[in-house]
Write a structure and sequence with these properties.
By secondary structure, this protein is an alpha+beta fold. It has helices at about 45-70, 85-95, 140-155, 155-165, 185-195, and strands at about 1-5, 15-20, 100-110, 115-125, 130-135, 175-185, 210-220, 225-235. A hairpin with a 4-residue loop joins strand 3 (about 100-110) and strand 4 (about 115-125). The longest helix has 28 residues, at about 45-70.
Amino acid sequence: MRHWKHAPHSAVSDIIWWPLRQTFAYDAPRTQVAARPTIGRLTKVQRDTVSRVINNVIRQAAENFAASLSAFYPSYGRNGLNESNLTYQVAKAFEARSNAHAFMEVPFLNRITRRYEYRIDCMLFDDQQVLFVEGKRLFTPEKAEQLRIDYQRMKVENLAPVLEKFNPSHARTRSVYRVILAETWQKKTAHWWKMKDSSRVWDNSWLPEQRGVVEVKTFDNDNTLYWLYAYEQLQFPAP
């Protein structure tokens, strides 16, 4: 979540750990304003379908990134990879699907200053769903707190005006999800994400139940890059 000056779950029922080495089964401003999509609760089948889309897209993005890292490493020494690589790779994988679209740095209103100075890292949508995505490098409790703030800022009252900007000809009922992505090289942090490591005292009570970990790539020095992700549907009232 970028801020431009100018312009609790404890039970986990769906934790996924996917090392990539395994085989897997499975605009311009407009004068007209579209009607806000009405979002109701999805059936279990519908929720499972959205979950498959999110999981498959993130898995494919990680595979693509691993292949890219085998050809080129875009950092030096102990410096991490720029977090924009997270959202770029996920956007590219999502947009490869039929009738899918991606926008980066989508603005929304700061309700205190009344200016559109907040930015969501990435917005993905097709005919069935809209995904609002925030990405972060995660290696300290301060970074974990920043991730929590970004995640909780993606709430209904902030995102509803964004949905109203759909062209009327593309306005339809879509399920809306908020998604967070994090990059870490720390196995303990990956375990903390899954709530399997009590040695991390960072707060993870805010994480939604739907979350997973992907081992993106293990390098020759035995360091492993992990992607952590979590997602949750947002319930929008009927207009």
